[in-house]
Design brief:
Layout lengths: L10 E7 L13 E8 L8 E7 L25 E7 L10 E10 L8 E6 L6
Antiparallel strand pairs: 1-2, 2-4, 3-5, 5-6
Length: 125
């Protein structure tokens, strides 16, 4: 039996944190972190998600080009964390872009895309 087409993802932006230079070259303070929460009914064991930044070349490298699944430690929360080397203080790239998210079944069938606004201002669309 072929698997079904996944439902359109329901995604919210939990948090967006910019990195900073705390003067300690060995710390991770320069890491920017975006946390997304998935609230759809797709199987966490049989569904992966593909991401595409629609309007920012800079932030398109934050998301993997292949479809990804939940990390084992965050599977129950249905959250995904995306981290990048952030030079917010010395090179402030504006963090405000549209992210397209597609659910992908184990056989490669894709859902309708969901659009989410990722912004430092806490807007989520």
């Amino acid at each position: 039996m072929a698997d079904e087409i996944p439902t359109k993802p329901i995604v919210s932006v939990v948090s967006v944190n910019r990195g900073s230079d705390d003067g300690n070259g060995g710390s991770c303070s320069d890491a920017g972190i975006i946390v997304l929460r998935f609230e759809d009914d797709n199987s966490i064991n049989k569904t992966s998600y593909r991401f595409k930044v629609l309007d920012s070349n800079f932030f398109s490298d934050v998301f993997p080009s292949e479809a990804v699944t939940f990390a084992p430690l965050k599977r129950n929360k249905r959250e995904m964390y995306f981290v990048w080397f952030d030079l917010a203080e010395s090179s402030p790239e504006k963090l405000d872009f549209k992210l397209q998210i597609v659910a992908v079944s184990a056989s490669g069938q894709e859902s309708e895309p969901e659009l989410v606004v990722v912004s430092e201002n806490g807007e989520n669309g």
